[in-house]
Specification:
Blueprint lengths: L5 E5 L5 E5 L7 H14 L2 H8 L5 H8 L1 H29 L17 H17 L13 H26 L3 H7 L1
Antiparallel strand pairs: 1-2
Helix pairs in contact: 1-2, 1-4, 3-4, 4-5, 6-7
Amino acid sequence: MGKGEDEIAAYNGGPAQERKAKPKGWTKARRTAFLTELAHSCNVSRAHKAAEMGERGAYALRQRDPEFARQWQQALELGYSRLELALARRALEVLGELELDERAEPLATMTVEQAIAVLNLHRRSVQQGAAHQRRLHHVATQEETDAVLLRKIAMIKRQRAIAQSRLDGGGADAAAQA
């Protein structure tokens, strides 16, 4: 397996690492093919076929790999813009106000109805951008974890001091000192 068959992947939300891709996995070439087709057609099914991957594979990759999710969003927005522009150009051509040369600016072959359906599918994702994507879980740093634990320990110590003062008969005065 050559250098072109490596993949960059995150494991359990950890840092991305380069590793050998599985023979049927998401290699760099397959990712590029998927993202290129998505940018051209705004059609995830076509992008899966271009990458020669199963129908759900990219969705799983997008959930576990934040970089791929970002690239997906960019490709989707580009494809959406291209599709909108192509529909506007077609409308002007039908009205006789524009002559198109499909060789100069090819677009994936689809009917106007198919193009509108694809736009409708992705409108919300494109309008809301990355905010619409499923949030990836934040992995706390050691410092963040220590700070949370120290706050909890301090809270437990205060609660024990209050409970002990009540047992000793100190009441509210001892609790205020804790």
